[in-house]
Design the sequence.
């Protein structure tokens, strides 16, 4: 067994199921030690058990991304266990439920979605930054969506590559993309690389399993961005095929 001091340490939020779980599987297959961030104790423990059964060096991290104290406690847990963090994958997200036509939506739905999908990312990232700064090659991956691309949402109906009308979820991903760019600008004089990744239309409980890609396929972009070389890009938005326009 390779000691933890010599392993790459990662934290994946929302890793108890779906894309997050498959990200943990993929990073664990690299020989990394992977923190399974999730707020539900039973689901988190079950995910850790399954990962370990598959040979992954996984450990549970109680984490509610909407709670300051929870994020702080998660950082302390990782510090005590490993002393640093090499990779943070901000995967936890919610849709807020559908439909979300802007003329009908409850403003409270927008607040709830933004609290998780945007503010939650900022909260967890800031809690983990002191640990990331101790890494030789720190990486931050924010899981976004093509519905957050204004370029892909605008234009004529024939030109649009996505036309989801969801005034809470889609703009939350646009907001997340902008936040990713802001972090990249602030951290440009450091060795921290931060990028957004689109998993594609993955069959998960967020969309009633209507997606056309598997969670494993959706996880691939996160694994790619988590393993970028030191001279890799930062402040960009990627999918499997390459750069996504903002």
Sequence:
């Amino acid at each position: 067994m390779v000691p933890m001091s010599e392993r790459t340490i990662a934290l994946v939020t929302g890793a108890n199921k779906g894309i997050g779980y498959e990200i943990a599987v993929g990073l664990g297959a690299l020989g990394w030690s992977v923190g399974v961030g999730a707020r539900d104790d039973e689901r988190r423990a079950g995910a850790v058990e399954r990962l370990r059964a598959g040979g992954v060096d996984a450990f549970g991290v109680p984490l509610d991304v909407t709670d300051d104290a929870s994020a702080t406690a998660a950082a302390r847990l990782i510090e005590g266990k490993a002393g640093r963090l090499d990779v943070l994958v901000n995967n936890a997200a919610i849709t807020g439920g559908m439909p979300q036509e802007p003329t009908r939506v409850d403003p409270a739905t927008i607040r709830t979605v933004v609290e998780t999908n945007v503010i939650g990312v900022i909260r967890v990232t800031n809690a983990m930054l002191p640990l990331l700064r101790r890494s030789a090659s720190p990486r931050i991956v924010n899981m976004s969506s093509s519905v957050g691309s204004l370029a892909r949402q605008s234009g004529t109906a024939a030109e649009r590559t996505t036309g989801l009308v969801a005034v809470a979820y889609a703009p939350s991903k646009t907001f997340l993309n902008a936040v990713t760019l802001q972090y990249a600008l602030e951290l440009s004089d450091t060795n921290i690389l931060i990028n957004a990744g689109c998993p594609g239309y993955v069959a998960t409980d967020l969309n009633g399993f209507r997606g056309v890609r598997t969670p494993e396929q959706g996880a691939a972009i996160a694994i790619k961005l988590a393993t970028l070389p030191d001279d890799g890009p930062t402040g960009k938005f990627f999918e499997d095929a390459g750069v996504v326009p903002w």
